[in-house]
Amino acid sequence: METLQPLPSYSISDLEEVLVTEAQISRRVDELAKEITSHYAPNDITIVCVLSGALVFTADLIRKLDIPTRLDCIRADSYGATTEATRPPRITNPLKTDIKDRHVLVIDDILDTGNTIFAIVNHLQNASPASLKSCVLLDKKERRQIEIEADFTGFEIPDAFVVGYGLDFAEHYRNLKCIGSLKRQFQSIPDTR
Ligand code: IMP
Ligand code: MG
């Protein structure tokens, strides 16, 4: 007899464990915004949001910054609908604005192997910014393949595939308010909705 796999609900009940709560995220975003503001003030900054994962984090963070802030977005694709990157990331949507002589802060959702931030930093460096730093909400240090650290980090987390607060599996779960590990049974299921 075939056993029936439960279907994902794309809600918090698909999580194995909540690793970072909504309240913890909110407190840490406040702290990061203060750190970033005092690091850059009185200069202005250009935020480069790495789509789509960093969208939610960036939206919350920039509203807490107390310095003149420009916003641009970039996209690097490495995953597709899997939980493992299969090829080096490609920049698929470059910036719209000129960052020459600007103080640039790249914001990503998670630093995992390091390949994405590495590719983006190299790409942006070619445009001659005045300075170039990075900020990530999550850091999975154990998974690093490239020696690279973010300048501002929200939380260090263990090696688990996580979703929520912008992070997805096959474009789902980005709207969850907390961050948690996705139950293994939902990490390979074909998209049914
Ligand atoms: P890296 O290139 O391996 O550092 O991975 C960075 C990118 O992979 C992030 O911008 C995420 O989009 C994605 N990623 C890495 N780990 C996770 C995860 O646990 N959940 C969801 N996305 C992840
Ligand atoms: Mg991403």
Question: Your description of this structure?
Answer:
This protein is α/β, with parallel strands linked by helices. It has a domain at 23-157: Rossmann fold (3-Layer(aba) Sandwich), CATH 3.40.50. Helices cover 20% and strands 28% of the residues. The protein contains 3 helices and 9 strands; from the N terminus they run βαβαβββαββββ. It has a 6-stranded mixed β-sheet with strand order 4-3-2-5-6-7. It has a 3-stranded antiparallel β-sheet with strand order 1-9-8, covered by helices on one side. α2 (55-62) links the parallel β2 (45-51) and β3. α1 crosses α2 (55-62). The chain is globular, with a radius of gyration of 17 Å. The two termini are 26 Å apart. The mean pLDDT is 93. It binds inosinic acid and magnesium ion (MG). The site of magnesium ion has 3 residues, from loops.
What is the 3D shape? globular
The level of helicity is 10-25%
Order of helices and strands: EHEHEEEHEEEE
Number of separate helices: 3
Strand segment count: 9
How is the CATH topology of the domain at 23-157 named? Rossmann fold
Strand count, sense and barrel status of the largest sheet are:
6 strands, mixed
CATH class placement of the domain at 23-157: Alpha Beta
Give the low-confidence spans: none
Percent of residues in beta strands: 25-35%
**What gyration radius follows from the Cα positions, in whole Å?**
17 Å
